[in-house]
Amino acid sequence: MRRYIQQELVQHCHDHRQMLFLSGPRQVGKTTLAKAMEASFHTSQYLNWDNQAHREVILRGPEAVAQGLDLDRLQTDLPLCAFDELHKYQHWRDFLKGFFDQYEDRVRVLVTGSAALETFKRGGDSLMGRYFPYTLHPISVAEAFDESPPELIRHEPSRIDDGQWDALWRFGGFPEPFVKASQRFYNRWRRLRTEQMFREDLRDLTRIQELGQVEMLAELLRSQVGQLTSYSSLASSVRVSVDTIRRWVATLESLFYCFTVKPWHRNIARALRKEPKYFLWDWSQVDDPGARAENLVASALLKATHWWTETGLGEFSLHFIRDKQKREVDFLVVRDQRPWFLVEVKSSGSAGLSESLGYFQQQTQAQHAFQVAMDLDFVERDCFEIHRPVIVPAKTFLAQLV
């Protein structure tokens, strides 16, 4: 299936000289997307580090790659060179810097990867100014029925098919299990992906030796999705130091196992400031229905904030709010350092409107405050035209995102 980000990446190649760094979890569709993009270019070359023949070309240096694309020959259009799994090459940054500096006016470059690219994006500057980062997310409600995302909000939402909604809930948003919608396939896919992440990726991309204890930590994070995180409690359970827990959690984030949602405290009296919450990239692994619902919405909001930020619409971030009186709202989306909208997730639409929504909307001056109910039927209306706290169907709210 065509992914929501594909046209943006193709347009980037036409408009900008910078390389594309496409990050995302294992099996989210990065390789498939890279190969699909080749159809948009008259000439292209796909090089996967895991392929021995391709690896030999890369190891011969930038000139060998350029020769395969005939970059010394006058061409009508700029070709595309896609590097897949290149982060497994120890000197991949130096290789890319040399290749880009020599051929930037003759080729467009796409680099896909997971942990190494995401980690590098946050530190080091040897490639500064030479790339733009993008993140490929699992399929969401909005993408399930329309792969062309809105610039910001889809003001005329469409109803997701009931079968697709059920598949997203049961099997998550990773393309293969979502499309197949088979419990037996999903069981096998999940087991294999977990083994690859905690054995191959941890072994190959980190220096961590205590793989069993990291798996134990991951299981603890999975069991407390959406709850305040106590690093000291995790350290006691796994039997390592708090500093080690922090490093291992950061590693699990860099491998796209989980992501952090931090508290927002500006202009909030007696707000919590430190304890974050963690959610999984694959919400189908969350057993508790209430926590899975919260994780599904968190994933959709993270996808939207990444998309809006990475396409240049501003600086967006995802937070939650909780104060010392234990008043809480599940999520706050911040736009250019200003609260934009609040989201409280409920399994049932019969639950009364949360008093915390109105309280924190007044505190933050957020434009919108939504109580998202998972069981309500789709309503064909723009949630974002309402500025008071309101209960909305999840199928409507999520359809307006990316």
TrEMBL record:
Q: Where is the DUF4143 domain?
A: 200-348
- Where does the record place the AAA domain? 17-143
Give the InterPro entries listed for this entry: AAA_14, DUF4143, P-loop_NTPase
Superkingdom as given in the UniProt entry: Bacteria
Q: What is this protein called?
A: AAA+ ATPase domain-containing protein
Organism expressing this protein natively: Microbulbifer rhizosphaerae
